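Before the break, one more example. Copy the sequence into your notebook; we will annotate it together after we see the structure.
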Amino acid sequence: QMQLVESGGGLVQAGDSLRLSCTASGPTFSRFGIGWFRQGPGKERDFVAAINRNAVNTYYADSAKGRFTISRDNAKNTVYLQMNNLKPEDTSEYYCAASENMTPRLTGRVDLWGQGTQVTVSS
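Here is what the structure looks like once it is written out:
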């Protein structure tokens, strides 16, 4: 069964950049749309960005537009989330999710979640 592993989180200062990676095991990665979500302490898990299986379509939360870019490399089984101009309010655990029948913003069925990577932005 495919598994997702996030990496690239860390502690940065406001205005800095980070690139998160979501790497999948298994040969079926290119069949899945992939999304990024985040969840802060005591908060609900919120959609951040998503990309469809062939990278033709991308979707962003309003909070991510203009600062975050999602991309994928199917040859490497990896989806990236480039985050620029980070703000303290971006501090969260970031999760990637896979959906074989992807809907925009992954509002439908999610088949698989990763374990998360922590992003902390200090002011």
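Residues 18 and 64 are 13 Å apart (CA to CA). DSSP finds no helices and eleven strands in the chain. Try to locate both features in your own notes.
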